[in-house]
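Take a specimen:
=====
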Amino acid sequence: DSTLDAQESADVMRALRDGQLRMLYVAPERFNNERFREAIKRVQISLFAVDEAHCISEWGHNFRPDYLKLARLAKEYRAERVLALTATATPQVLVDVCRGFNIQAECAVRTGFYRPNLTLLTTPVTRSDRDAMLLERVRTRAAGPTIVYVTLQRTAEQVAERLAAAGFPARAYHAGMEDTDRAAVQDWFFASDRAIVVATIAFGMGIDKANIRYVYHYNLPKSLENYSQEIGRAGRDGEPSGCEMFVCLEDLNTLENFVFGDTPSLAAVQSLMSDLFSQGEELELSLYDLSNRHDVRPLVLRTLLTYLELDGYLQEGTPFYSQYRFKPLVSSAEILGRFEGERRTFLHKLLAQAQQAKIWFSIDLDQAAQATGSPRERIVRALDYLGEQQLLELQVEGVRNRFRRLRQPDALGPLAADLHQRTLAREKREIARLNQVVELVGHNGCQVSELGAHFGEPLPKPCGHCSWCRNGGKPAPLPPRTHCQIGDAQWREAVRVRSEKPEALDDPRAFTRFLCGLTSPKLSRAKLSSHRLFGVFSDVPFAEVLQRAGG
């Protein structure tokens, strides 16, 4: 992963090739790496284990397109066994996971969802009172390892500073920090029995500290699945542990904006389809360029391409790097002196293809393949080997994705409309997930049982340790959701900016993103993310702004 330096990464790959590794952890996206796929092909895999397997399902709370391809890769690499694991499978997600990995019903094992040592509290609170309530909770309870989950990176910094200023051992953790800083916070947290980490969901992967005593949700979680994952990190030693959600309905605005900001406009999807199906049968694409050109966020673009694959329009090949660069660490003569016969001849021809700049040499793999009469895969393996032997320092960049067009759509318009409707359906599902969190808080019944029912496991009787049970069988009254209004003067000014920048703001969704403070490739390209009106209506519901914008 990204925490390994070049030497550590090379050591791992060398141990992999030499058969010295018993276990290797990688992200699913690693299989998009040309060099990694070439290396893994020669390894016998006894167990192909997929964690967070709910990501294979569009009904899951964290659908990731690269997960859909893992089942196919397990077959391609002739894995002896496949194990799919998730802690957040609803009944529908379980069906999807089994179907995707061809798992028979009798091979689907469910463990108990209920954790009797966890007290689950949901506490309605106003935005102005929330900090004082958190400080009061930390001050009056026994010390213990604590996670405070927040939505935004800046909130993590602010809340950690307030706790530290009050004398508590608190630090922030989020994806915007340097790798070394995040690692330092993790090490500090694991070594302490009093530490408080204020974190975004970036503090989820790999957290296996058994004695976490408290988990607070300073902001609302995005879904019941996220909530159950996050509270699940408390009390893994079986000892009593507290989980409390501060319920502030004003948080919904920010969370809804994340969802709405991902949905592309119909015009963007139409533009993307026109581009993809106007090219030849063999496509070599830069997803970064495609995302920027058509104003579709990268993850959404990957999802749309996956839909086209699943519907039989495209077939993805092995991604590759368009540019390979190397810096010799020894002379060419010394490199060639280590080889004999055909291998020496091959390397001589290969190195002759390199174009020298000041220090680094660049090499075009397609040209090198023609000059040496060898397949591209052999050249990749050879350069990797020379890098591992510390004969040269290798760098790769410019990842490009190969696709083959299998069939042409009868008409682009209906296809684009169908794909756009799928993105709108995803948007609707994600908003519904948010509403499920609010409904759990106001549920007139045992909240732990209701949460279990979401995953197909209701309790036979009330738990006795949730807010509803502890409040004498009464749901907590929720304060009304309030938000700012759209000011007429500000709206007139925004409309004037829209008329000045029609190429970026003419589409209602793009205009609404701009006003709600949501970045997109188009807005960044037009340098509107730094405009003083960017985010002027960030405290107004996205749907309300979109309706006024004509969407």
In short: DSSP finds 25 helices and 14 strands in the chain. The longest strand covers residues 392-405.
